[in-house]
Every structure is written in C-alpha cells, then in structure tokens.
Amino acid sequence: MSEVTDLVEMLEKTGIPMSNELIEALLRTEPSDFTDFPLESFWHDFPVPFLVTDSGVTKTISAPHMIVTMLHHLELDEGLHVLLMGSKGGYLATLIDIICGHGGKVTIIEPHDEIAEHTSNVLERRKQCGLIRVLGKEALEDPAWDRDVDRVLFTGSIREIPDFVELLIEEGGFILGPFGGRIQQRLMKKEWQGGAWLETDLGGVVFGPMDIRESERGFPDPLFIADEFEDALILISSVLGENSEEVYRLERLVESLRELPPGLPEITSSFTEEEIIEHPVIELLMTEAEWLNELWPTFVDILGFDLEGIVPDLEEPLFGKRHADFTP
To answer: What confidence tens digit (pLDDT) does each residue in 95-111 have?
Structure first.
C-alpha cells in the first residue's frame, strides 16, 4: 500500500480538502482490486481504465484529485444512502461505503449490462461495511422506490436533473455532478430545500457524458442532435466568430431541430433509401448540406457521431469537406 500512502500525501500537498474519514477510506482501498490495467497513470493523478467493453469503449476510474474533490463535496456521514449514477468500476462506491459505515447504503445505477456485471463481480470479492448494490437503469422505474436517498452523484456529465432522480431525494438531500455538454461543464451541487433546488457552482470540470438517457435514444433523435450541435457552437463560434454566417446558420438549425414534432420514427435497417431521405431529420440536414459540408468533419471529431451507415450513398457526398479554419 506504499503507493496509496504516497498518493494520499501528494493529494494533501495540493491542498484539496480531505477529512480523516476520507483519508482512512483511501488507505484501506487498493485500486488494483478494481482494475487489471497498470496503475502508473493513477499514481500520477490521471484516470485509469478498468474495462474495455466488447464494443471497444474504454471505461475509466476518475483521476484521484477528482475523486477526492467529489467525495469532499458530497459531505458524507455515517448511515447515509448514496445513489451513484455510473459505476466507475466499484472503486468510488467502496470509498463511499467505508465512509458511510455499517448503516450506510450505496446504490449503483449502471445502464450497461457488461459494466454492471464487471462491477458486481469485483464488489463480490470485497467485504462491505454497509450495503452496496448494483442495479440497471430499469430499477429507476420501480414504483417501490421511496424518497430515501440522501445524496446523488453523477459520474458523467448531464444537462439537467432527470425526472426520476428528483423523485428520490429527501428534503435536505442533494445532487452533485458535472452539468453541461461535452465541451463545457460546471461541477454543481443542487440541494432540495423547501420544494426547490438551491444551486452551488463548484467550478469548471471535464467529464465524459453520462449516457443513461442517451443509451435510450434511437437515431435520429432531433433533440439529441440539437444538444450536440449546441456543444459544437462553443468551439465553432470561438474560431469563426460569434457573428459568422456559419454560427448563425447553425443556431437556426438547432431551433429547427427542436421544433420538429415528437415521436418521429427511428431509422432501422429495414428502411429503404427513399424512406431514409424522406425522414424529417435527414431531410432537414440535407437542406443545409451546402454549408454543413465543410463543418461536418469537425462535428465528427468533437461529438463522435456521423451519418455514415445511416444515410445511403449519394451521387454527391452529403458531408465531408473540412472547413479551412479547422484544418491543421
């Protein structure tokens, strides 16, 4: 455990607030119990992978300074019930379990079966102080849930508090998490007091997206695409200027996407080329193809999604030529 001790000493020197209970939890928890990947990056205060999924997605345990920061702001105490949105391999839940003690409870909501199974297997090998359980997102729809949650921690970025979480928070309980899009987020504490959310801004952070809601969306969801384009606007406006024609057109496109009627069908493999092209979302994007053409590769780089494999081959490519201002 010498590496853990050195890590704690390093974090103390940075001035990050750490209670005695948090320090004890760190010293009692060996990170190697939660990952088979080398821990060199973790000892140097960087994230470390704990799993590469079958689809090739790397899932990580957050950097130590961010873990300590989040646990400090959670204001943990014995006997609390903490809802953890996203497993982080079980490491974060174990630290919370030690701090909250024998009367405490940690409920992990992990939307991906593969990650949930991995986390459950890891936690089964460890002795727990209180209760740690790993559930899928369908558990949030269980009517048996009571408003007995004291803290909620989101381990990925979200844009707003999901309705199902609002129903779980006790008076005086609060939510902690990175609120914003893919590019810009703020670590926010939102406390439920007297029927309203009281917000405290704890500073800028960078997290990957919390995909509980996104995992339920089919393509092409116009609201999802609008959200992604709004994120891209932050970068594009800083490069091209807030008054540029591209920024203006993208802002109008976002408005048009949000105005599309709800309940549009998901494009599936059974769709013909004609049906795909006539889909309202694709049709809207295609009408903007002339100017979107140069920006689309930037969207792919920033946002990580494309229409390849969805939109059929056309005589002229729909999107693809990189804008000169974004060419290295």
So the answer is: 999 999 999 999 999 98
Structural domains in the chain, CATH included, are: 2-205 (3.40.50.150), 217-326 (no CATH)
- 122 contacts 92 by C-beta, under 8 angstroms: no
Q: For the CA atoms of the chain, what is the radius of gyration?
A: 22
DSSP 129: S
Q: Note the pLDDT tens digit of each residue in 214-272.
A: 444 556 788 878 877 887 787 778 888 888 888 888 899 989 998 999 888 888 778 88
21 contacts 27 by C-beta, under 8 angstroms: no
| Angle (CA) 192 216 35, round 5° | 80
**Model-level pTM greater than 0.90?**
no
Residues 6+ apart with CB under 8 A from 11: 18, 45, 64, 65, 68
